[in-house]
Amino acid sequence: xxxIATPVGIVLGLVIIVGANVxxxxxxxxxxxLPPMLLVLGTTVxxxxxxxxxxxxxxxxxxVKRAMTGSVEPAETLVPQVVTLAERARREGLLALExxxxxxxxxxxxxxxxxxxxxxxxxxxxxILEAELRAKKRDDKQAAKFFSDAGGYAPTIGIIGTVMGLVxxxxxxxxxxxxxxxxxxxxxxxxxxxxSANVVWLxxxxxxxxxxxxxxxxxxxxVEGVAAIQSGANPRLVAEKLRSLLTTSAEAEAA
Length: 255
Fold this sequence. Notes:
Elements: H1 5-23, H2 34-50, H3 54-69, H4 78-92, H5 107-117, H6 122-171, H7 176-231, H8 235-244, H9 248-254
Helix pairs in contact: 1-7, 2-6, 2-7, 3-6, 3-7, 4-7, 4-8, 5-6, 5-7, 6-7, 7-8
Subcellular location: Cell membrane
GO biological process, one term: chemotaxis
Main location: membrane
């Protein structure tokens, strides 16, 4: 099931900001000015791309979707699956697990158990799985960094937009009737810089970090589960070992 915490939080955050503006007697349309929005949002994206690679930029598009609708099965849901596999392996041998793999929807666990069934050395199995886990963590770190960088650039670019706007104000001192509108427009750039950083970019970054943590925890549990199955450990001990890797609340739910 999709977890929509991020889009709900961002949308409601923006609604509250607009609502507060209306309650203060402001006009929301006065905040939607194309030049400062284009300057802040467009330049933020471009300088963030400049700080990485084109591969990072392309991956960012998919990561936005992942942040908005992605979800991760809690690590504790793997415990009963691993215990069931351990029971069957202890009773019938590793080869008997081949039929059970069709019932497992976790590709990482399936990969580990498949290598065990094929007779791969336990140390090699662990090394391969842990290498994939490390690579996954590196990718997740970079995905989150792209948006945290954007959150760092946006406020400064907003200030640049405000300075540019104030320069335009000074150029029009001879027309006092236009100064109010020009000054307001200048400060809209700072608003969009700070708002986009704290309502959009940084929440997306933190969301990607959290999803990455949950996925890594699930993969770590799978690594230990495969090792326990391959060693022929007692299923009860397997369950206890895996539960010890979970947080207190997750452990209670798994039990």
